Amino acid sequence: MTTLMLVGATGLVGGATLRQAQGDARVSRVVALTRRPLPRHPKLENPLVISSTYPPMSVVGGGQRGLHPRHHHPQGGLAGGVPSGRP
Known about the structure:
Strand 1, helix 1 (12-23) and strand 2 (27-33) form a beta-alpha-beta unit. It is built from 1 helix and 3 strands. The chain is of the alpha/beta class. It has a domain at 2-46.
């Protein structure tokens, strides 16, 4: 069985992806990070992300290389274990 991690599940494309994943027998679990709660579903785990805890967009990725797909961690580096000096 497959676990799918989905970011953007409240948007148009993310919502369609979520509905497909929930109806797909090959997907056993969907983890959807959102800012607001999603309707309950047996396959769905929906941790909420509080957007006010993130730094301004100009800080993300050091501001030199543009935006990085992961948010800047307050203690240094980027979330997900990627050091801040790497792209």
